[in-house]
Design goal:
Blueprint lengths: L3 E6 L2 E6 L10 H16 L5 E6 L10 H8 L3 H24 L4 E5 L2 E3 L1 H7 L3 E4 L4 E3 L10 H11 L1 H10 L3 E2 H6 L13 H11 L5 H15 L1 H17 L3 H12 L6
Parallel strand pairs: 2-3, 3-4, 4-6, 5-7
Antiparallel strand pairs: 1-2, 7-8
């Protein structure tokens, strides 16, 4: 795997996003690597729970805008297919995390932005450091972050989802905790791995069959509408990429300028 490192310690595995030079941006290769890591840990009977973490100062900066910029350079008739393919892969990654049969703990020690916020919300629990932030700022790039909005609505309600998705204003770790998004108050960065491992062990003490059934109840039965919303949101986000404002936002990001709407 090119951008993912897998570590194991007893019955706990850690999938480490290893793309610090791009702040963990979700390229197609990285998304495929996370899928592969999940598949391997699913098949490994010794592993009872999994932690998702990241190297570098950013947990995950979200969609890879350089990939979206590359798509914009394709002939027009090819672009729409590629937009849909990219957002479909992101939706499938979030669904794979939600359907993963073992407890998943996201360890966020830095910004989790847009789709990076979405993948943390797709895990069962989030352990955050005091320097973590969470944002859903797609609109500031002329994009539609529908997958993140759907997951945030599922986890915390539509009021917070609307506030974050429409303004792009980030939540601090303390604010995320007050909103009920974290499994405990923020911790020091140097303690985050130990505390995440503690939650991973605590969440795997029950029967594996009961844990799997409980996850299915929460994420697939109670969250049935949410799974449908993720698929629809991926299509909406892809369509939004065809607009002039999306193009301006992507170009502004690549050129390090501010878009004018």
């Amino acid at each position: 795997m090119q951008h993912l490192e897998v570590k194991t310690n007893g019955s706990v595995a850690t999938l480490v996003i290893d793309r610090p030079e791009k702040h963990g941006a979700l390229s197609p290769r990285l998304m495929a690597d996370i899928h592969q890591g999940l598949d391997e840990m699913h098949q490994e009977p010794r592993i009872r729970s999994v932690i998702l973490s990241s190297t570098g100062p950013t947990f995950c900066s979200g969609v890879d805008l350089s990939v979206l910029h590359e798509i914009r350079s394709l002939p027009e008739q090819e672009q729409l297919q590629q937009w849909f393919e990219y957002w479909r892969r992101l939706a499938e990654l979030c669904e794979a995390l939600l359907r993963f049969p073992k407890p998943l703990i996201a360890t966020v020690d830095g910004p989790a932005m847009g789709a990076g916020f979405a993948i943390s919300l797709s895990c069962d629990m989030i352990v955050a450091s005091q320097r973590a932030t969470f944002s859903a700022g797609a609109v500031r790039h002329g994009l539609v972050g529908g997958i993140t909005a759907a997951l945030l609505s599922f986890r915390a309600g539509t009021s917070l989802s609307a506030k974050m998705s429409l303004t792009g204003i980030p939540l601090s770790a303390e604010e995320a905790d007050r909103a009920g998004l974290l499994c405990q108050p923020p911790v020091a960065s140097e303690d985050i791995e130990t505390i995440a491992a503690r939650w991973a062990n605590e969440s795997s003490q029950g029967s594996p069959q009961a844990i799997q059934a409980t996850k299915r109840l929460i994420n697939e039965s109670i969250g049935e509408t949410m799974l449908t919303q993720i698929a629809a949101a991926a299509a909406d986000s892809a369509t939004a990429c065809t607009t002039e404002t999306a193009g301006e936002g992507i170009d502004a990001f690549m050129n390090k300028t501010t878009p004018t709407w």
